[in-house]
Amino acid sequence: MKSASGSFMSVRRTRRTAVAGVAMLACLGLTLAGCAASSTSAVSPASGKSITLNLGGSQPLTWTPGQPLKVAFFAYGSSTAWEVAMTKSAKETAAHLGIDMTVFDSNENAQTQFNQMQTALTSGKYNAWTFAPVDGSLICSVVQQAATKGIAVINQQAGVCGKDGESGDAARVPGLLSFVGGIGASASTWKAFTDYVSKDNPDPTTAVVLSGTAGVAQTISSSDAIKALHTARPDFDVLGTYATDYSSQSGYNLTQQALQQHPNVKVIISIYSGITTGARQAVKEAGLAGKVKIYDVGGDTEAVAAVRTGLQTMTVPQFPATQVRTALETLDKLNKGQIDGPVIKMNDGSTLGGPNGEPFFVTKSSAANFTAEY
To answer: pTM score, two decimals?
Structure first.
């Protein structure tokens, strides 16, 4: 909203005083509604005054509220339901907030994403970035360059520059405005996940893991947590780990293979719900539905439905739509002068889960009242 303070210069002093008095009384009457909670340091978008934010980088971010937002959104890809939901939400949020946004789709290719970022940086067209990294190490340098050039940068999903799997402000690269932590990539999510699985299976048991592409944050964090679980509990025997391409077909094929190789398996851990769709089908065809417990991270529509019916034991939901919406809303708040430092949001920006980024578990008891985002 633009301030109209400059349009009352010719009004008599008594009139101004009366208006101010009415405004003060209105504020007093609306204190409980938040009137008195407005920050005195907030800058009116129409003021033209720059604000300076110390984000811990080599130089602060200097920003002029009210300037046209030109956002580059670097999407992870468009082949999975999670990716589609995120990009759809990004477009809807940008339209709602009046943000001029360009989507760069990497098609899950790390080099493509790096090249897109380099091109966007060189063009000088964008004053804000938000991105879900394909390879956080590869894009580290160009992300840091963007931050030093006065671009407001938000890192979604997984940390970059060696911060994969970190939580809270530890996941934010100094100089970046915000980190909106992705549930699937967080080490703390996977620690809580494996703790849950361990408690749900207190007796000696056997398990197989449906994993993902090597080097991807979700694969790394899940692998580390599962190894830690086996170290703490040698009787939780991981019989095999199978690397999928995140598709339901690979989940189906590799679960069939795992059941043939390990007919005594009692637990299946899948790192993504798209994989689990195929795994559930393979388990069902083998006549093992309800006999083999299935746990995953993703919480898509099919996983939640399977938990409701008992075909799956538990899922940790991800919120791709909320994640990117949170990022774009943060940029909008920056442009309204409502931010004075780094912004950290865990759990994809969702209000579900614990205060320190603990995930939300969808079980049979909670599935009835939960709606998946994709």
So the answer is: 0.85
Q: Tell me how far apart the alpha carbons of residues 134 and 364 are, in angstroms, rounded to a whole number.
A: 33
pLDDT of residue 45: 53
* DSSP classification of residue 175: T
Quote the CA–CA distance of 116 and 41 in Å, as a whole number.
36
Do 255 and 278 meet the contact criterion of CB atoms below 8 Å apart? yes
d(CA 346, CA 246): 23
Q: Give the rounded distance of the alpha carbon of 360 from its chain centre.
A: 14
Could you tell me the two tokens for 268? 């299946």
Q: What DSSP state is assigned to residue 37? A: G
In this model, does residue 125 exceed pLDDT 90?
yes
Q: Alpha-carbon distance 184 to 156, whole Å? A: 11
Q: How confident is the model at residue 165 (pLDDT cuts 50, 70, 90)?
A: confident
pLDDT, mean of residues 284-301: 97
Give the span between the Cα atoms of 49 and 60, in whole angstroms. Answer: 16
CA distances to 94, 321, 328, 346, 366 from 91, in Å:
5, 10, 10, 22, 30
The span from the CA of 104 to the CA of 113, in Å, is 8
